[in-house]
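Entry 14. Ran structure prediction on the chain below.
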Amino acid sequence: MKDLKNKVVVVTGAGSGIGRALAKALAVRGCRLALSDVNEEGLAETAAAVSGSEVKTYKLDVGDKDAIYAHAAEVVQDFGQVNVIINNAGVALSATVREMSDEDFAWIMDIDFWGVAHGTRAFLPHLIASGDGHVVNISSVFGLIGVPTQSAYNAAKFAVRGFTESLRQEMKMEKLPVAVSCVHPGGIRTNIANSARMSRLDSAAELRKSFDKIAMTTPEKAAEIIVKGILKNESRILVGPDAWGIDAINRLLGSAYQPLVERFTRNKLIV
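Output, structure tokens:
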């Protein structure tokens, strides 16, 4: 896919953050946009920001499998085809393995992993039918390394990475016209920390303060990197200097990276 003009692009989680920035970046490139989010107010603001482009908005909870498949059918009915699916919607959970509830564990997996998996599977037949498709799944740098209090988030993002890398190989082996990219953002200045669920060990203020310190990249810059990665058909798209650094450390040290993470977080984790 060398040109995105007139391509039908689906973006989940488009009501804020990277999703909104992606909608803007794609609109500039002449894409036809199917934007979804569970937050209708934020979604309306995104639609207003890309006015003048061909865009339709949909309220969607990616944690609802049936809703995702119905959404895929509706988008195809509205646009006639789909060329790109960007499974971007996600949430955060800060809790130790001992402290997190089963409900919170299921909540983050339903959105961050199953939302991506079902989104991919629901749209994949339509991407193949288009003759020029692309799956873009948003993982994280926490899909590259494990971090204390992030076990559930790690589990979801590592799962997205494995699922996506396997899919890319399958599409190539079967000679199907669908490219596949896995995106690993570092710290991006979004509101994900504000909406995160936390155990009693954490406070919202502390989480936000810590997040602000490591958020090195704007959503707009992240979106530009992702779009360029799509056009280059990159299998792994690293977003931000911290993502490149973490990837390099992981490749260089292997599992020996873990003592570094432990030292960095020891003073912040109470057990």
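The chain has a mean pLDDT of 90. Will compare against last week's run tomorrow.
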